[in-house]
Automatic annotation (TrEMBL):
A Pfam family the protein falls into: Hydrolase_4
Name of the protein described by the UniProt record: Alpha/beta fold hydrolase
Keywords: Hydrolase
Sequence ranges assigned to domain Serine aminopeptidase S33 in this UniProt record: 68-168
Single Gene Ontology MF annotation: hydrolase activity
Gene3D superfamilies reported for this sequence: alpha/beta hydrolase (3.40.50.1820)
InterPro entries reported in the protein's UniProt record: AB_hydrolase_fold, Carboxylesterase_BioH, Hydrolase_4
Organism: Pseudomonas benzenivorans
C-alpha cells in the first residue's frame, strides 16, 4: 500500500468518527506551503535581480526598466520560475516586479491562501508605478483575478494554468485526501474562516473583468483541469484563450507561444482593437 493510500484510509476512518479533527488537520496542511529551493536553471536570473522589500515585509525581485509588470507565482512557487518570460519582458522594455507570495521565499508568514495572495498584490501595486500588466501562474493567476475585484488596477491581465473556481479546487483536495462528506464540508468552512471570504465568492463567474486579458492553459495539466481555463474565458468577455496541447502545469511557463502572445497583448493595450490570436 502506498503512503498516499494509507493517508486516505486514515482520513476516511478517523473522519467518520471525528470529522472536525481531520478537517482541521487538513486545513493546516492545505494552507502551509513548503519553501522549495530554486532549480539550477533559475540561478542566473536570480543573480541578476534586485531584491526589494515592500511594506509589511513583502519581498520582491526586480529586473529591467520601463512600464511595470507585476508577476505572482503559484503555490509553493518562486518568481524565477517565470525566467524565460521575465527575460523576454525585460528585452522588450518592461520593468518586472515578481513577488514572493506570503509565506513563500523571503516574505513573512507561515500560512497562505488565495485571498492573502491577492491582498499582497494590492499592497505591492500601491508602492509600484502604474501597472501595464499583471501576470499570475496557478494560484497566482487566481489571485490576480481576485485582486482586480478588490481594487487592483492594471491595463491587462494574464493567467497561466489558473483555477477560476476555488470551491471546485477545495472539494477536489478534500476528495483526493480521502475526507468523508462531513469532514470535507468542515474543511471547506475552516478554509473560508481562515481566508475571511466564502469560497463561492472566489468564482470568476461572479467577477466583473473589464480589462483585456490572456488565458493560457495546457490540456495535459495534471493539477488544474483545462475546463477551468474555459470557465474563465466564458466569464471574461475581453479575453483570449491560448490552448496548449502540452505543457503540463509548469513547463508551459517557458513556452514560446505563451511568451509571444503575452508580449503581443501588452503591445496591443490601448489600441482600438486587439488582433486575434495567431494560428
Amino acid at each position: 500500500m502506498s503512503s498516499m493510500s494509507l493517508i486516505r484510509g486514515i482520513n476516511a476512518s478517523v473522519g467518520y468518527l471525528a470529522p472536525r479533527l481531520v478537517a482541521s488537520r487538513m486545513r493546516r496542511a492545505f494552507m502551509t506551503p513548503r519553501n522549495l529551493p530554486p532549480r539550477d536553471w533559475e540561478l542566473p536570473l536570480l543573480a541578476q535581480a534586485e531584491r526589494i522589500t515592500l511594506r509589511f515585509g513583502l519581498s520582491a525581485l526586480r529586473w529591467g526598466k520601463g512600464p511595470a509588470v507585476l508577476l505572482m507565482h503559484g503555490w509553493e512557487g518562486r518568481p524565477t520560475q517565470f525566467a524565460e518570460l521575465i527575460k523576454a519582458l525585460v528585452q522588450a522594455g518592461y520593468s518586472v516586479f515578481a513577488l514572493d507570495a506570503p509565506a513563500h521565499g523571503r516574505s513573512p508568514g507561515r500560512e497562505a491562501n488565495v485571498v492573502l495572495f491577492a491582498r499582497a498584490m494590492l499592497e505591492a501595486a500601491s508602492e509600484l508605478p502604474p501597472l501595464k500588466a499583471v501576470i499570475g501562474h496557478s494560484m497566482g493567476g487566481a489571485s490576480a483575478l481576485l485582486a482586480t475585484q478588490l481594487g487592483l488596477q492594471a491595463e491587462a491581465v494574464v493567467t497561466i494554468a489558473a483555477p477560476g473556481r476555488i470551491l471546485t479546487m477545495l472539494r477536489g483536495f478534500a476528495q483526493y485526501m480521502g475526507l468523508s462528506a462531513k469532514a470535507g464540508a468542515h474543511f471547506v468552512r475552516l478554509v473560508e474562516e481562515k481566508a475571511g471570504m466564502p469560497a463561492k465568492q472566489i468564482d470568476v463567474a461572479q467577477y466583473q473583468l473589464n480589462m483585456p486579458g490572456l488565458i493560457v492553459h495546457a490540456v495535459d495539466d495534471p493539477k488544474v483541469p483545462y475546463s477551468e481555463a474555459e470557465a474563465i474565458h466564458h466569464a471574461w468577455f475581453d479575453s483570449q484563450l491560448l490552448r496548449l496541447e502540452q505543457g503540463g502545469h509548469q513547463r508551459l511557463l517557458a513556452d514560446p507561444r505563451l511568451i509571444g502572445e503575452t508580449l503581443r497583448l501588452l503591445e496591443s493595450v490601448g489600441e482600438a482593437a486587439v488582433v486575434p490570436l495567431t494560428a
